[in-house]
Input
Amino acid sequence: MKTLILAEHNGTEINPSIYQAVTAAQFWNLPIEVLVAGSNISAVAQQAASITGVSRVLHADAEHLSHQLAEDLAKLIAATGREYKVILAAHSSFSRNILPRAAALLDVAMISDVLEIQADNTYVRSVYAGNIYTTIQSADAIQVLTIHGSNYPAAGAIENKAHIQQLEAPPAQRKSRWVSETRSQSDRPALSSAKVVVSGGRSLGSAASFEQVLAPLAEKLGAALGATRAAVDAGFAPNDIQVGQTGVVVAPELYIAVGVSGAVQHTYGMRDSKIVVAINQDPDAPIFQVADYGLVADLFEAVPALTAAVQ
Output
């Protein structure tokens, strides 16, 4: 039996979270294979083949996979999935969209956001935004799961690449189709892998203030911008930079929370940050309970002053 990892990518580069998924997959001491699916993605397959611990890359290249529709990828996984003991991916909106469908086609359960893998198909995962840890065991013949990436160190890269095998994709399903997409272009680091993250909450007051106050600080620090769900819901920031249980999970070296109240849904997504700095004018804000350094101040005065002080 083997372990299969579903690779997330943007068409040119593999997502860094795949390196963490490979580390998690090593728990089973089984050959690790990576599935790279898309159109004209040879470069991505080459990247996957260079990850330490990967024994083979399955390269499914077809025009109808160019937009990676969940229905098509789930069908592809199900077509080969019975060869594997474990099918896993890093926990993200990409995998959350695909693996439940694949699990259903394979007639097994899907376990999400695994914090710890234990013997006998036993897993630790959190519920209620990280307030409670549960230990569950699966009796399914095929284990389908997503892992909490920041809990696992990233695997390295090697020069001797694994074998890349072409995989024929099943015909396209016709029940859904790609219509359009809107991508945010930014020179800032990717939020999920940034070493420094500057996040803002609803206290910023508007989309204009969010950008005017936080962007200069992020630029000086070489940081990614993040936002709370409240700020996203208010239209201050795009959905793809939402940090939290229902957004992106981050684990930077430095996390600066500006005007963030500290709701559990948000702190779940940044709890693995090495150093947390909170700036909030409310001294009773819950964010101060998880912060290493706290500043009770008006963010509209404190953040520009901090930005000016950064060399």
